[in-house]
Structures are given as structure tokens and as C-alpha cells.
Amino acid sequence: MEIDIKLAISAFVLGLGMSGVYFLLTVGLSLCYGLMRVISLDQFFYYALGAHITYTLINITGNFWLGLLTGVIAVLFIAYSIEKLIYRQIYKKPIMFSMILSFGVNLAGVGIIKYIWGLAPKPVKAPIGGTIPILGTDVPGYRVFVILLAILIYLGVWYFLNKTIVGTAVRAGIDDAEKVEALGINVYKLFTLTFILAASLSALAGGLHAPMIMVVPDMGLSITSFAFMVVIIGGLGSIKGTLISSFIVGQIVSFGSLIWAPLANIAPFILMLIVLLIKPTGLYGSKYLRR
Amino acid sequence: MEDAFILKVNDISASYGQSKVLFGVSFNLGPHERIAIVGRNGAGKTTLLKCVAALLKPTSGFVVYEGEEITGRKPFEVARAGLKYVHQDKGVFQDLTVRENLKLSSYATGDYDWSKVFKYFPKLKILLDKKGAGLSGGEKQMLMIGRAILGSPKVLLLDEPTEGLAPGIVSDLATVFCELSENTALVIVDQNLSFISKIAQRVYGIKEGKMVVEISDTQEIQQASYSRFL
Asked: B13 in a domain, yes or no?
């Protein structure tokens, strides 16, 4: 089977754009599990909420960037309240509590979105039009922007975790939160910080993804399985792993749809199974991560 | 009148779910004192230290530190107040370098004077850029204790500090603990009776979650005559 080179380049860039969205959505999921040992399914609600707020603000102000920023800030405050009111009650409980609870928050949140915004799909116009020629192929400028922004955010998160003392405490907490607390550090502040960082990135992912898809209340649901595959393949708690697996899954989905549509859904699962068989902690998951 | 004890543990009971581990355990610790708690595996030694450090909530009883009851307080508050617990499993942060491990403790305590750490453990100075995962058992223990003494704690709870260490390192640790106790009171949980006999001024024996013996006679401690109770 032959694939046209221009089509391949186009698919590659399309895949990179998806990888960028996957990365933004999953880096928080990965950090939440790594540090707090919770599975935060409500990240998909923040993703959908970010997209809907972006859509509404564009309609009111005509400014995409203002919409994106408002979505991120609104979600930041909502996530702060949810962490304080709900998550604080379950940090010391078995992981199943967090799954059930965050699933409930997600369902309730999506229900509220449906009530406020309705069920009809909503289009969002890309703020950056035009195309950029890459190796003789014209690729959408907005996709290139999303890719660059995702790389920038990866560098920002990397800098935070590796070069700041609070980030060092988060990394130590991923190893063992009790020992961080025994040093005299308030781990609950770290939990709050990580949770709102995760939710803000999810909202950013939703807002950025909005021009590439139709905005619907259940948009989080359609990306859930891919997000979990990214986190599992990359390794829980590792942002480097999340970045690399986002890239891999994005490319597999993109090229899969080009070769044979069902492959886009099947291939990431097969890859995940292979990775789990060879390295159960994922590509970059820490063997020191304990439950 | 100043209290003779910096730490008072009163009638502590604790359990993990339905399984009761401690049954009304009490002991006191004077400032600059070195006491040891000895007992077999599963006797409840670690559980007791975790209750004192507020890492585990006792089912009954209370802990008084510097005249204030600390039961139910958050572990980080207790650590900041100067009562620190050094974990049993040589648990340095594996992915962090020695420098980062020390920085974290400095950040928590506001004490950036690492000279006291290097005074006791000069080897750590040359290991600053080595990751926790690459350290030997002895080096990990040095780092754990070095990390804990930043902020000049008033009480250190040391859980099995000699476990798995070579005899030479154990002997060095005994010297360090004796020097440390000039400023810090120590509660040492260990099964190494010859080590305990060198450093402890008072020994408690714990068996099946109950204190079964208290020895404060130096000669008895050195002869480890309490071992018959364990």
C-alpha cells in the first residue's frame, strides 16, 4: 500500500496536533496519580468546560484568546473548590474511592454543561488561519501553533518540577508523600497545587482542541480511552513518558486513520498491551512509585 | 517549673483496621536523653513511633511534646515543631539527588546551614549530585539522618537505623548518635542489642504491643539482660 508523501506529512502534523492536546490533557492525570494516588476522571469535565467557556466568550467578545484564558481561569477556581471540598476527604482512602468520586464529579459536571449549553454541537473558528508549507505540504497554521504551545508547556512543567523547590517537593511526593510530610512540608498544599495545575491544563486542552472538533458536552468521553492509553503507555507520574506516549498515540491515531480507519482505535490498544507486557510500569513509569 | 520530660507518650493504643497492634503503651523522654525501644518484628515498634510522629492516629491515648498535646495534629506541623521521624526503609527520595534531598529539608525547616550535616557525615559532601537510588544502604542512612537534623530538631525518632548496615557503619552511627544527643533527644527503635547497649541510657522492651520492661541501669543495659523479656 502506498501513501502519498504529501498526505503522510499532513498526517504527521495532524498527529502532532492531536499529540499536543493529548499531552495537555494527560500530564495532569499522570501527576495526580503520581503524587496523590488518585484517578481524576473529572479532568474530562474540565476539558469540556474549557472548550465551552472558550466557545461562549468567542461569541460574546469575538476573541478566541480571551475565551481560552477565561476558560482556564474559571476551571482553576472550580477545581480548587472541588479539591478542597471533595478530594480532601478521600486522599487516604483506597484508589477506588477516587475513581467513583471523580466519575461522579465528571457526570455531574457534564450534566451542568448540558443544562447550560445544550446538546447541539458548536463550531469554533480557529484563531490562526492559513497554512504553513512544510516540505512542500501545506499544513494548517493553527495545528502548528498547538504543537509549539504543547512543547512550551512541557518545558514549563519540566522546569517547574526540576528547577523549583516546590516542583522538587512534588517529585519527592510522587516517590513517597508520607516522607515529604515527615520532613515538615504540608503535602496537602502540594496536592492542591498539582490538582489545579492539572485541571487548568485540561481546560487549556479543551479550549485549544475546540477549533479542531465540534464542541459537545460529551467531548471528554470520546477522548477518555486515548488519554488513559497515553498515561499508561508513558508511565504514571512521568511527564517525559506522557510527552513521548502522547506523540506515539497521536501518530498512531493519525496514520491509522489514513491506512485503515478502524486501525486508529485498535492500534493504540495493541501498543498499550505490548508495553504493559514488556514493561508493566509503562515506558518511563518509576519503579519506585508505590500505592 | 520546667518539665523534666520533653516527650510524654501516654497509654497509646493503635490498630490497623480490625487488627490491634498497640495496647496502652507509655514512655517518657528527657531532653538530650537517648532511649531505645527494642522488640521482635511485628511487636509494634514502628507503629508506636508513627503514632508519636502523628503519622498514624492512635485509637486511644495521647502524646505531649514540650508541654503541649500533639495527638491529632498534622504530621508536617509536628515535624516543623521539632519532632522528626526517620523512616525505617532507608527511604531517601530515589529520584532526587543528595543535594535535592537536603534542599527539601532546608525548605521545610528554613535551615540552610548544611555544615552540621557534613560535620557528622562528610561523605555526603562528595555525593551531592548522586541520585538517592544510587546510594548504598549506609549512605542512604547518612542522608536520612542528615536531612532530619536540619532545622535542629529537639527529638528524633529513629526507626531501625542500623538495619542492613555493615558493622563499621553501625559503630560510626553510634558515635554520631551520642554526639547528636548533646542537642537532640533520641528515641531509637532497633533489634541490634549490641548497638543499643553502646548508646542507650534507658531501654524499653516491647512485646506483642505492650511494654514489658524498662531498664535504666547502665550495667543491665550493657549486658542486654532485658533480652529475656522479648
From this structure: no
| Model confidence pLDDT, tens digit, residues B218-229 | 888 877 766 666
Nearest CB to B104; choose among A168, A174, A186: A168
Q: Which chain B residues touch A185 with a CB distance below 8 Å? A: 76, 104, 107-108
Q: Is residue B61 part of a domain?
A: no
**Within a domain: B225:** yes
Q: Is A133 on the interface with B (CB under 8 A)?
A: no
- Higher-confidence residue of A138 and A210: namely A210
Q: Among A278, A243, A222, which residue's Cα sits nearest to residue A30?
A: A243
Give domain status of residue B97, yes or no: yes
Which residues numbered 32-71 in B keep a CB inside 8 Å of some CB on A?
53, 55
Residue B196 belongs to domain with CATH number = 3.40.50.300
Domain holding B107, by residue range, is 34-55+74-229
Q: What is the average per-residue pLDDT within A34-63?
A: 93
Give the total number of structural domains in chain B: 1
